[in-house]
Amino acid sequence: xxxxxxxxxxxxxxxxxxxxxxxxxxxxxxxxxxxxxxxxxxxxxxxxxxxxxxxxxxxxxxxxxxxxxxxxxxxxxxxxxxxxxxxxxxxxxxxxxxxxxxxxxxxxxxxxxxxxxxxxxxxxxxxxxxxxxxxxxxxxxxxxxxxxxxxxxxxxxxxxxxxxxxxxxxxxxxxxxxxxxxxxxxxxxxxxxxxxxxxxxxxxxxxxxxxxxxxxxxxxxxxxxxxxxxxxxxxxxxxxxxxxxxxxxxxxxxxxxxxxxxxxxxxxxxxxxxxxxxxxxxxxxxxxxxxxxxxxxxxxxxxxxxxxxxxxxxxxxxxxxxxxxxxxxxxxxxxxxxxxxxxxxxxxxxxxxxxxxxxxxxxxxxxxxxxxxxxxxxxxxxxxxxxxxxxxxxxxxxxxxxxxxxxxxxxxxxxxxxxxxxxxxxxxxxxxxxxxxxxxxxxxxxxxxxxxxxxxxxxxxxxxxxxxxxxxxxxxxxxxxxxxxxxxxxxxxxxxxxxxxxxxxxxxxxxxxxxxxxxxxxxxxxxxxxxxxxxx
Length: 536
Ligand code: ADP
Ligand code: MG
Ligand code: MG
Description:
Elements: H1 2-18, H2 23-30, H3 42-48, H4 52-58, H5 60-73, H6 75-92, H7 95-109, H8 123-131, H9 139-154, H10 156-162, H11 165-177, E1 186-195, E2 198-205, E3 211-218, H12 219-224, H13 228-240, E4 249-254, E5 258-264, E6 269-270, H14 271-276, H15 285-304, E7 307-308, E8 317-319, E9 325-327, E10 334-335, H16 354-357, H17 365-380, H18 394-403, H19 415-424, H20 450-454, H21 493-499, E11 502-503, H22 505-515, H23 517-522
Antiparallel strand pairs: 1-2, 2-3, 3-5, 4-5, 4-11, 6-8, 7-10, 8-9
The chain binds adenosine-5'-diphosphate and magnesium ion (2 copies).
């Protein structure tokens, strides 16, 4: 009773307090940090990469160091990178800002008399560039000039970068990135959720203050339920996808008892919690549209990589501190190269498509069905074929799914939501929205600018309160079933080697930059070894 309530209060206070990082206190810690010497082990060599795209565009630290190199070396290189920056700003801008960006590009880079004229272009490309004007600001032409600019940077500038002290710095960071990760790397806070193989709790990286969620998979439980392969697949898919609308993986490691997946902390709670646990049941339509636009984009991203999600439901959609949502829980996802299908029964009762229930072969169609069920649930606080808290046998759910028409009795359905749900809930795959048409074009999404949404520029319609914990009380996660202490050892070396790969490059580098550690350690005044070349 009261004691449990007190436990919960203490856990919540610690968790909320951790999220207010004291920068000055952090900075004091950093004084003892130093970048390691690159040892050029085979693991490091394999992860360094040699491609311009990976080093100077995709990896945030590589990009920063390349930028610093450019700044220190040649004004012409500088013009090229500035042009790329301004071009991408123009692409995502709207209205007035877009017009302004356009005028700036024309004046700065396209006039031969300007000192920022793109003089590295071949004569042909230069002519095209000069031809650009207010009326003739052709997107295809700009793409060509952009590619010509990247070709230029990929050449001499990139090879000079590889010979510079900036690249040595990059190797030092890569060496640092390769460090072994264990429990001591984090502080641990309260449990946020519970899943089939263990719990998810909040953690904080000790030396950056960055908060994450750690999904812990109990090794014994995995072994007993034969879930090892699934865990590895979940990890592989999470580290491969890089989308604003899918939870990012930052670290993967294991300890004696658990496999740990450390991901973006989504402290706004899952959508199931928002539908059923907060005041009035259901979610306001404006929010439903925004979340579903983000999830549709996320699903399309997965499908473009030939991944079928198979576990679309509000419970697996999580909100971050700003109120943006992401899909999580890729434990049921499968990779199905073009033309390949499966007939395995997978998913959650109430969200499974007719083709799964009929044990037919299927591919991506099942995600669109489940998305239809999810939209329905967000509006009506019940599923299309199961009422709220109705106890019903799986056979009956299957029968209703295959035979019944979906009814819209709830007062909050409007014409576009009814229409899009009906189209996602077409029993025949060939007729279902998403399987042949682009769902983003549906009237339900008419208020959404998908370009801006994909660039993360659309403000969320609702922002979680920073002093509220959007999760069940901690005592509700108390273990009821204890796994009996079977004599057990988890010693599949190959498996653990594949799973426990430590930091995930891009996300780790983002953490270093966002927390300020990058600037701190990169400061030449403090770390006077910038020109120290040659390594052991
Ligand atoms: P399972 O695969 O066992 O269903 P999930 O990955 O869905 O496990 O996690 C279980 C629950 O933990 C989720 O429903 C959610 O409430 C919470 N949770 C999972 N991931 C996060 C996260 N990144 N941030 C915050 N809470 C999370
Ligand atoms: Mg789940
Ligand atoms: Mg799962």
